[in-house]
Amino acid sequence: MKKNNDDFFDDSFEILDESLINNSEQNADIPIRRKRITEENAPDIEPEKPITQKKKKFNRYILNQTILFAFLFLGMIGYLVYFEYKDADEVINNNYNKRQAILDKSVYRGEIRASNGEVLAKSITNADGSKTRIYPYGDLFAHAVGYNCNGKAGLELSANFKLLTSNANLLLQIKDDLFGDQHPGDSVITTLDVNLQNSAYSAIGNNKGAIIAIDPSTGRILTMVSKPDFDPNTIESDWDYIVNEEGNTCLLNRATNGLYPPGSTFKLFTLLEYIHEHPNDYSNYTFDCSGTLTRGEYSIDCYNRNVHGHESLMDSFAYSCNSSFANIGLSLDMNKYKHLCKDLLFNSELPFSMTYSKSDFKLNEKSSTFEIMQTVIGQGKTQITPLHLSLVASALANNGVLMRPYMIDHVENVDGKVVKQYEPEKSKTLFSEEDAKKLSEFMGAVVSYGTGTKLQSSAYTAYGKTGTAQFDSGDNSHSLFMGYAENGSKKLAICVVMEDMPAGSTWAVPAAREVFDTYFAS
Amino acid sequence: MTAILTAIAKYALILLIVFYTYCSFVVLRGKKINLNMAAIRLQSAIMYTIHFIAYTIIFINVKEKKIIVLYLAQVLYFSITKGIFLLMYRKKLSRALLNNMYMLLCIGFIMLTRLSYENAYKQFIIVTATTIMCFFIPFLIKILRNLPYLTWIYCIAGIIMLGVVLVVGRITYGAKISINLGFFAFQPSEFVKILYVLFLAAFLSKSQSFKRIVISGIFAGMHVIILVFSSDLGSALIFFVVYVAMLYVATGQLRWVGCGFAGGTVASLIAYKLFSHVRIRVLAFRDPWSVIDNEGYQVAQSLFAIGTGSWLGMGLYKGLPTSIPVVTQDFIFSAIAEELGGFFAIALILICLSTFLIFIKISMLHTGLFYKLVAFGMAVTYTVQTVLTIGGAIKFIPSTGVTLPLVSYGGSSVLCTLITFAIIQGICISIPAQPEIDKNDSEEEGSDDEEE
To answer: Are residues A156 and A59 in the same domain?
Structure first.
């Protein structure tokens, strides 16, 4: 340290001796030798090679790392560019983004169109400069397209920021900015089919219910109808009346958010569990139906107390025999059954980006005999959405593979240039190919000689399961159908629910037929 | 009218900052400091123009007199302090670095005034006071020849300051990092960043024997560990990277870098297991959307801001940057990207890069190993801090809660960054004039390049 203090008064600076550095590891204890170069006479001293080399060496190490750090900066820029270019539109389309009101001022809300280009929603400017949202098809797409006020719903909600983002070319945006005009928002082109939507709409008629139809090989949602509905053109003025009227549920999208007892459609799940537990001999199952099954103090009746007599497993499914299925259900391993239902999307999230309700399955090992007997035939406490049932049908139609259901085909800018194209995407394998094939066979039997014979057609082959779900002590019940139809590679999966229908007919089946007929006629 | 002016201003600001950025790379060229005077003067003019345009927009949106007062005070600050620097140190200062310092401060002033006048005012007072102090730093660096030998003073002072924080510091955002001094909460870890670089430079410039490397590791490790126990993991990470980087320059041995990174990986895994707020940050990084109500809220809001702003930005006062928690500090970058646009934000990153490169250039031009290491260490400190802030805001890396130097609000941060810049200027003016060696150098480096 003493020597250091001497240096302080000297107008000099130091450079370490090269030779010392080279040996420093071996001779760590040798005192440090220094070369002293005064600033004034520095040029006089012969510039020693080792010094420059040493300096150069340090500089090389500095340079190496500088390149590394510079790449960190460039990496960040690259990531930011990627984010702005690729992810941003997707990311900002989120209800937690509070910039909606701001964008509403600077962007002219884009259009929503059907798959063939029909305008389902557009904004027009009134004489006083205010804007009105117009829905040319009125009630027809009420739930699918939704509304753009009072919290929004449907596509107006889920594609909100897409409609409020302008990907018009930059020059046009600059021009609009400078003239104080609004940027034209992007348009959303849906997967919805006007023709099919019309047939589903008329199939439900004046009843309450929902129909959702999906192309199984892509996951495109072609039709989504829910009744009762509303006119989105007048929803703003009707709002108070609707929300205050007791029992008015017209704002509920039954297709995605309606929770129903699955009725006999649930026998599909029971059947699959039975096949899994008896992989080799399930076809040997027989049952003698006397119209009712009694276990202890509880009994389960077949529909209308029909006596189905001696029947195989396939017959039990095709005729939808409650007694036989209660009998099957009591033999099942409840733990495995519960897991099967979980795998088939009960009590879990659906791969769907819009709002929906989660389906509910409540059985476990501790459940009572009566609860089991009720649940396996689709009564009990189980609740399911039409969306969920349609996804199961869609997977069965697609060799067990569920394609992610989607309703936006692409987003385009004001000039019609595609900004974002949504491609079909595999969501999950719900069934093994073998299981899908077996279940389809059973569902085929329902149409060929069971409860769904009204679906026999020369234009397509249909597969499905009917359901009748009691929801109170009255005579009326919900009528359900889930299944699919195919003709070559053309397929359509469907779920129909009709609420509160009088006894005596499987109401959902002809409704499904109407949609199938329309689809396969075109 | 306001809307149209704001729109025009938006494009003007983007164009100007792009020109500025271009100049900031032009001035880097050449083997000497201050070669391209035309670009340097243009930079200065652009800065004043950006400052004027932005404050005009702020004024027509707010319509308060105090904005004009603040604007004029800032103009005076820029011109007078810059004049004094140039007067005191002639042409030997790095003018490019001086320009970048004022440009970054200017962007910070603009954004802070838009976000919170109170913060902007406070920041301006601290910046002015610190700058006056900084007038003398380059002079001191040049004349204090014993700076390389105060090794243990730097080290012990640093460890004591960090220790005091650990003991008496109060909790802010899950990390014990500040001591309240009345006017502002002082964060010693910011100041220790300077002492720490000085310590490592002094220690590693003497000799690079195995024994000394081990000792340096122990003391560097002490700093890092105290910071970890203070839960200030952003600073701990900066200290760690700075150590590894400086060690590599001093020894040139990649195995130390290897050891460093192996140790760093193990340490971060332990930190992940040990500290809940590390896990929260990582969770918020990996999938902010699944935890948007709590842990992911901040990052999600930041991404909304950047994404909604898109390339051209919403324009000043046209966005909603105040929806991001702690926007004036950790997430000022997102506010800039939202209102001034993605292009402006990219230009800002490039200005930070050019600042880093000026540090490096000064480090490489100086022949004394101590000064070389100080400049390099400070360059790395600056870079890591910048990358942590911006990277955290754009979800490039988990957010660590550090500030963007000179731009973010924060008394200690801006104070210590200004001192850092002044120290670098001090090293710059003490670069010895060695025309012959320089000549040799350039020839050799030229041939070197060919070999590579």
So the answer is: no
Tell whether B294 is within 8 A of chain A (Cβ).
no
The closest CB to that of B437, out of A8, A47, A89, belongs to A47
Interface test mutation site (partner B, options A41, A84, A90, A171, max chain B beta carbons within 10 A)? A84
In the stretch 223-252 of chain B, residues with CB closer than 8 A to chain A read: 245, 248-250, 252
pLDDT tens-place string over residues A392-416: 999 999 999 999 999 999 999 999 9
Interface of B with A in 199-228 (CB under 8 A): 205-212
**Chain B contacts of A39, Cβ < 8 Å?**
432-433
A178 neighbourhood in chain B, CB within 8 Å: 4, 7-8
**Closest residue to A80, CB basis, from B148, B376, B394:** B394
Instruction: Convert the pLDDT of each residue in A67-123 to its tens digit.
Output: 999 999 999 999 999 999 888 888 888 878 888 778 888 889 999 999 999 999 999
Predicted local confidence at residue B292, as pLDDT? 84
Position B16 scores a pLDDT of: 96
A77 domain-assigned: yes
Q: Is position A183 within any domain?
A: yes
Mean pLDDT of A265-294: 92
B362 touches chain A (CB under 8 A): no
Q: Which residue has the tokens 């006062």?
A: B317
- Give the pLDDT of residue B310: 87
Over pLDDT 90: what percentage of chain A? 57
Pick from A24, A65, A73: CB nearest B248: A65
Residue A28 pLDDT: 40
* Residues of chain A with C-beta less than 8 angstroms from the C-beta of B212: 28
User: Do residue A24 and residue B207 have CB atoms under 8 angstroms apart?
Assistant: yes
Confidence class for position A353, pLDDT limits 50, 70, 90: confident
**Structural domain contains residue A518:** no
A377/A296 same-domain check: yes
Summary mean pLDDT of chain A: 86
Residue B151 forms beta bridges with which residues? none
Chain B residues with beta carbon closer than 8 angstroms to that of A69: 356, 379-380, 383
Show the low-confidence residues of chain B (pLDDT under 50): 436-452
Cα distance between residue B405 and residue B123, in whole Å:
13
CB pairs under 8 A between A and B: 204
* Residue finishing a domain among A142, A172, A194: A194
SS3 A232: coil
Asked if the model's pLDDT at residue A355 lies above 60, the reply is: yes
Q: Where is pLDDT greater, at A335 or B177?
A: A335
Q: How far is CA A187 from the centre of its chain?
A: 21
CA–CA dist A62, B249 (Å, integer): 6
- Is A303 found in the same domain as A334? yes
In 3D, which of B64, B80, B67 has the Cα closest to residue B110?
B67
Does B206 sit within 8 Å of A89, measured CB to CB? Answer: no
Is B280 at the interface with chain A, CB within 8 A? no
My answer on whether A31 and A141 are in the same domain is no
Residue A267 lies in a domain: yes
* pLDDT higher than 90, residue A434: yes
pLDDT of residue A170: 77
What burial letters (b/e) apply to A46-83, b meaning 16+ CB within 10 Å? ebeeebbebbbebbebbeebbeebeebbeebbebbeeb
Contact call for residues A260 and A383 (beta carbons, < 8 A) = yes
For residue A46, is pLDDT > 50? no
pLDDT for B1: 66
- Within this chain, do residues A276 and A328 fall inside the same structural domain, yes or no? yes
Taking residue B91's Cβ as centre, other Cβ atoms within 10 Å add up to 10
Q: Which domain holds residue A372?
A: 261-384
Final residue of a domain: which of A384, A411, A441?
A: A384
Together in a domain, A359 and A279: yes
Residues A377, A267 within the same domain: yes
Please tell me the total count of domains within chain A.
4
Tell me: do A19 and A59 sit in the same domain.
no
With contact defined as beta carbons under 8 Å apart, do B351 and B21 qualify?
yes
Burial of B452 (0-12, 13-18, 19+ CB in 10 A): exposed
For range A472-489, the mean pLDDT: 89
